[in-house]
Fold this protein.
Amino acid sequence: MKKLLFAGAVLLLALPLFAQIQGDYIESRSTDVFTGQCYANGEMGLTGKEAILGWRVSKGSWNGVTLDGLSIVAAVRAKATLGDPYGNPYPAKAVLIVDDQATPQQREALVAFAQHMGGRLLDTVERVLVAPVALEMSAAHHGSALLRAGQFATIQTRAITPNDHNCGNDATFYPPLTPTAHSMAAVALTDRYDGPGLGENWNSHDRRSAFVGTFAVDAHAMAVNHSEAGE
């Protein structure tokens, strides 16, 4: 027994302390995320049932598969306003758009990663599409980003300015739909989905409906937790 414990301790010491997967994140929804409470309450149940989420892995792996430089996008249509504490958006429908630069093994890992990050929002995947996916964050202009997922989805953002305040108490009303290391609300100059699987396409402009930021997940810690849960 002592030998087994010693061997386990040696194995743990041999593992990296920070086995992270990290990168850039973007999100846009069919309702304002930066708004006043009165506006948000007036839109609940009417808007905010659709969303596009995108991740670009700068470095890291998932399920033992290296994903450096690869991206995945999820388009979602829910049953209620996402983030409404009194609504039930589940089950939601999702379409995943996987980077065409990924190998079949990497595509499986990207899908598993996105479903982990999205949780219940991505439980029901209607389609998995393969297309060129690019997510670019502007270093010169904070809050500016561009996501393109083939012909299916586009998000283009800019930073929120004082001119975007509609009332005196505008603030970030909704948090991002997935875990982030850092995020900021932004204006979606374009928020477009034109693809199959959701029963609806959309194309909106100039709405305070986006988030841009970064994510960082301790993939090793997640693997240990999953292993312990299965014992």
The chain has four helices and 15 strands. Residues 1-18, 221-231 have pLDDT under 50 and may be disordered. Residues 104-118 form the longest helix (15 residues).
